[in-house]
């Protein structure tokens, strides 16, 4: 509903709230195709007229130009953050389509946190609700990419808790010991080999083919792959984690994923081991108690384990 600026009273708190909401809506209004402020507000009022009622012109700028500065800076910052945090998705669906996706997403899920890292927290849900923005890209592949990129950001940003040592595990009673995973760890079941596409544009480092290190993309953004990359449908499991301040993508087998998932959900070490040993099928008969012990030792060295805490993040 259009707001009559002349009716607003300077001493009235409700008038101030209306004015704040109006200014915010104008700042959040998407830019036009030339990255300039639009002519009309969402309710049909001329933005120039609204700007004149809100901003005093300066010696060098009109009221509309002053409003345009805020409008542009908001969108330039939002788009920059999305291109940095979801550069893989941008190249997967195309830059133009990605921008339209971001504009529609921010209209439905406007920023509600001072942290830029939180702005994409609902992007997976938005893609499930609005697959038309993806064009020819498979919805599952796009969602895999979003989940992986969110996990990488979490690996950069999440805290570390004091680790559990091998001695702590050996001395504890398995039926009572609940082991938690570090907050920076994400367990992902992926339907596409999406990390291959992502890593084709990133600097690689790591400890073998199943361990891929990721540089900080806010310092070295993803470069568009120089060659055509065909996505391969392949159900697999990865653990995104941080080791010595570098995020890694570690490919794991299905039994490892199930074992870690049970620990993450709060099951005791005994329950997780019991479920693993009784749940193996013939295809996994090579995964023995010895293998389970080796995993536990490896993950302890990597610093994945900590005391279990509910609602870590």
Account of the protein in words:
This protein has 313 residues and is of the alpha+beta class. It has 2 domains: 1-79, no CATH class; 139-307, no CATH class. Helices cover 45% and strands 12% of the residues. The chain contains 12 helices and 7 strands.
Index terms:
313 residues; 2 domains; 12 helices; alpha+beta; two-stranded antiparallel sheet
Give the neighbour order of strands across the main sheet: 2-5-6-4-3
Radius of gyration: 25 Å
Find the structural class using helix and strand composition: alpha+beta
C-alpha geometry:
elongated
Number of helices: 12
In round numbers, the mean pLDDT is 84
> How many strand elements?
7
What is the domain total for the residues?
2
Distance between the termini: 39 Å
- Helical content band: 40-55%
The biggest sheet amounts to: 5 strands, antiparallel
Q: Give the low-pLDDT segments.
A: 203-210
- The ordered string of helix (H) and strand (E) elements is HHHHHHHHEEHEEEEHHHE
Which strand-content bin applies to the residues? Answer: 5-15%
Quaternary structure of the protein: single chain
